Amino acid sequence: MRFPFQADHKYYKKNGLYNFPQKDTKTRIQNMTLTLLTKIPSMRREIYHKRMKKEMIKPFEDLLI
């Protein structure tokens, strides 16, 4: 989940804290695209304020309901 946590990504990368290689081309392209989209203020609001919480709990909905 690199794209929503860009500050964390920069810190981890700078300090060499990643313990796995990210060589999957599809994932790299997806991360790059989503990172660019978060630079647009309207998209940023949509992702961070409207969708983030819903999407993070989506896999656990069956357990929570």
Low-confidence stretches at least 5 residues in length (pLDDT < 50)?
A: none
Please indicate the percent range of residues in DSSP E strands (runs of 2 or more).
Answer: under 5%
- Radius of gyration, taken over Cα atoms and rounded to an integer in Å: 14 Å
Structural class: mainly alpha
Number of helices: 4
Task: Work out the number of β strands.
Answer: 0
User: What is the averaged pLDDT score?
Assistant: 81
The succession of helices and strands, N to C, reads: HHHH
Shape estimate: globular
What distance separates the N and C termini?
25 Å
Helical fraction equals: 55-70%
Largest sheet: none
Topology:
Blueprint: H1 6-14, H2 25-37, H3 41-57, H4 61-64
Summarize this entry quickly:
This protein has 65 residues and is mainly alpha-helical. Helix content is 66%, strand content 0%.
Please provide a written account of the structure.
The protein is mostly helical and 65 residues long. 66% of the residues lie in helices and 0% in strands. The protein is built from 4 helices and no strands. It has helices at residues 6-14, 25-37, 41-57, 61-64. The longest helix has 17 residues, at 41-57. The protein is globular and about 40 Å long.
Notable features of this structure?
single chain, 65 residues, mainly alpha, 4 helices, globular
